[in-house]
Design goal:
Elements: H1 8-25, H2 29-36, H3 40-48, H4 55-65, H5 70-73, H6 95-98, E1 103-110, E2 118-128, E3 133-139, E4 149-153, E5 160-167, E6 170-177, E7 185-194, E8 200-211, E9 221-223, H7 230-242
Antiparallel strand pairs: 1-2, 1-8, 2-3, 2-9, 3-4, 4-5, 5-6, 6-7, 7-8
Helix pairs in contact: 2-4
Amino acid sequence: MNEIELSEAQSRAIARTVREALARRRISRQALADEARISISTLEKALAGRRPFTLATTIRLEEALGQSLRQDAGRVDPVPEPPRHAPDALGSYSREGVSWLEGRYLTLRPSFGAADAIFAYRTEIAWDPDSERLVFREAERVDAPFAQSGSVAVPNQSGMIYLVTNWHGQHRLAILCRPNIQGEMYGVLTTLHAGRGTQLTPAAAPLALIPERAAAATAYGRVAADEPHHARYRAHLDRVLGDGYATFFTTAR
């Protein structure tokens, strides 16, 4: 007998047809193996996918069943397309639905260490095919060890965009309004401010993400009040409160 082995896809198709025939005719695997003059071990392993069907075994099964098995062997089960939706915890968005967020952004917030200075760095947002979600990564930070990365949530309910860092339970969150016509996003950053020694203090600050293609002569780092880019950067941060992108509440004295 010819011992040509069929492909994995062909073997799967034949196994499916044989199982359907067994169920439809209400015969046992042992009875089929006896009728086809093959061992029950050979049949069981082939049906379980532990070994491929051979051409000889397939012919004997066709004779025993009185039907063709090889007509289905050329029909390969389609490989399921990987999911293209983020988890429900991030808004269940599709890649196509959030592709407009992908890109590089000049990111601005007040400096936590120098009065009147503005802290400028880059945020990159891109689709991660492995985790099936948008992710963000910070770069061009003068304090590189503190650069953040994480997931992007885009829920329909609030219409906001969330940049979420979760590092072993320690969270940092940026809440941003949807991009305006220039692609700019404004909102609030909530994080921890490193104080003296190992002291960490909760802190919140206005935040602006400006598409780099629209940011002329971009400068990164800690931008002091007397530097050329400061006025333009300050105008962006002033929009957070001035245009109502966020509200900061304090208790009355």
